[in-house]
Fold this protein.
Amino acid sequence: MRKLENKTAIVTGGSRGIGANLCESLAAAGARVVVNYASSEDAAAEVVSRIEAAGGKAMAVQADVSKSADVTKLFDAAEEKFGKVDILVNNAGVVHYKTIQETTDEEFARVMQVNVTGVFHGMREASRRLVDGGKVISISSSAALMFLPTYGPYCASKGAIEQLSRSLAKELGPRGITSNIVSPGPTETEMFLGNNEQEKIDRMRNLAALGRLGKPDDMGPVIVFLASDESGWITGQVIPVNGGTA
């Protein structure tokens, strides 16, 4: 039996990279998946097509998670199509690789608006509308504990997400809703590979005990487990999925 049969999952930032893989992994486990995207409509449609071709159920919904009204609209669409929401995966995020000295007000604000305010909007809506026994899973980064140059605002945003998640776990625990964090290491995504020089990519690869960068499909099994009833006694935790990166 598939672990997530009759469950509905929303994945923010689900059109590309880790998010696209998470959507397909959740669907393969039986979930009906809402693929959220901000601007990549074609990519989101492709994710939906792949899920449906494999026998799953999915829909794409445009929403900018940094806008509260958009997140409300996202949940509205999920409930209208599938009747309820059981799982929220807060995956949408942006990064700017610049030193603190070089980072502009606009760049800093954008990282915080998407990575922190966007997750806050998702958590707030989930706390109001997730079914009892539901799951909130938020994506952080192992970079939050590595204190690397040019990662300052990004690391700050991920640290904030982890603290929000722990508080949410306490608040929603009486309803049987869990809130956990998955913390990937450097991963072969368009965002990481396209914004870094080869020397830095090689250096980050060598930090992993397993000697490679992560792949988006390394994350799927962990997300499916945390979204399933099997993880019911795990909440308020940060789960590193990073190949021993330190």
